Known about the structure:
Strand content: 5-15%
Number of helices: 15
Oligomer: single chain
Shape: flat
Low-confidence stretches: 1-9, 186-217
Mean pLDDT: 79
Distance between the termini: 40 Å
Radius of gyration: 27 Å
Largest sheet: 5 strands, mixed
Order of helices and strands: HHHHHHEEEHHEHEHHHHHH
Amino acid sequence: MSDIDVNGRHDLRDALDLLSEQVADGILHAEPVYRDTRLPAAAVQPLVRANLAEILATLAGETSSLAAAHETGRVTAAEGMPLDLLQHAYRLAGLRIWEELARRLRAQPDGGPLLRASSRVWFAIDRSSNVAVQAHLEASSGLGEDMARTELLRGVLTGAVQDLETAGRALGLPADTMLVVAVTAPGLPAVPAPGGAAASDDFPEDGGLGVVGVGVGPPGVTMRWLTHEGDRLTLVAAPTSDDALGILTDLAAHARTGASRPFTSLAGAPAALAQARIAARSLPAGQVGLSRYGDNPLDALLVADGERAAELAAAVLGGLRDRDPRDEELLLGTLEAWFEHGGSGTRAATALHCHRNTVLNRLARVAELTGRDINDPRAAAELYAAVRARRLHPPRPG
């Protein structure tokens, strides 16, 4: 197919991936006006792609429901993005599309085709933008008090709210035991809604509030939640610590979940948020499940200062990096098995399905390559900390 078909319509859908990447990058990084917004990349990228797919289909002469534009208006309203930034995003998309058109039409003998194509681009952009703006206005008018409460919760968790007594009443939080739970993307679970119904989004782009209903959690347990900087944050309030902790299994299903220590005053919410996020990051890369702050203090320490942890791993395990990657992983796995089984070569060998002498030979190679013998308590401590740091902060390829 030529760049311009017989009807003068231009089809750029073969460039959808490239244009989506360019526009999303502009929104997330290149444009200073967006740097203070809360929309995470995981929310921006699919919205950009869906909008561009609609716009490019329109340019190719096909009809579009503009569902993506409507959803974009709803999501940006829920996240509190101002209308001018929403409109700027569409103008950025139009500019990238026009640049791609100009590149393809550069060989045309006159500027007529580019002028006509440019007109169609901005018509399609204005059409989508107008729908998104209208959806944004409708969503904003419908959010009202819920938006205010969501921002109040955000302020409590981040320490921006000073009048905590009033905030607690406004949020309907009893003065009981509380904890903060952070669920990191991807894999955010549905959040229980009032009456026990669950939200349908696996990755919600908007913030909101939900109350645990009968049959969802123990009696008297209240949850208030929102999405913030790409994480689902939940403030759980319950009569006792056991009641609060009892809800964690449901929140942790199929996701990387961290829970803070229980606390009794909203003044402790910002510290609890930091604890919950550290706990979630204490799970090894790619692993889902629940991590409670304080259960693995060494991992929490390594996560809290990722730069120092990476330096520790590089300093202690540097000798292994020169090996074949498969050999390196074999030695690291043997070290982990030895530590996991209390320093027993026999039990480590059983777990690794090899002979005890094989485990001992590998540990001897580790000592040779790192200069640290596991029979020396100090050297063993350094090796253990370095292996944990390596698992929590895997080195980047290359």
